[in-house]
Known about the structure:
- The chain is mostly helical and 98 residues long.
- Helices cover 45% and strands 0% of the residues.
- It contains four helices and no strands.
- The chain has helices spanning 31-43, 48-55, 59-66, 74-88.
- Helix 1 runs parallel beside helix 4.
- The longest helix is centred in the last third of the chain and has 15 residues, at 74-88.
- The chain is globular, with a radius of gyration of 13 Å.
Amino acid sequence: MTRLPSELQGLEFPLQRPAWLPADGSRKPGALLGFYIFSLRKQCHLTQETVANDLYISQSYLRKIEHGEANPSVNMTAKILNYLEAWARGEQPPEIDE
């Protein structure tokens, strides 16, 4: 099993480090946020398509966020995290405006 970067040590994630999150520290600035979003989504058993449709964003944009290839705004990050964290707690996700 590949070790997670030191910033992630001690945190509980439902999955092993994906191949696109390098273990050697050479990662994109948004990779840790993307991995957190990816992990939450997987923990909730949601597809990228479902999350993207519910949040009125494209599936490709969500994939880029998860892979650290996109730089979402603070508002978009909050929108995604509020949605996924509500699912993770077993609550109804907040209403999303287009």
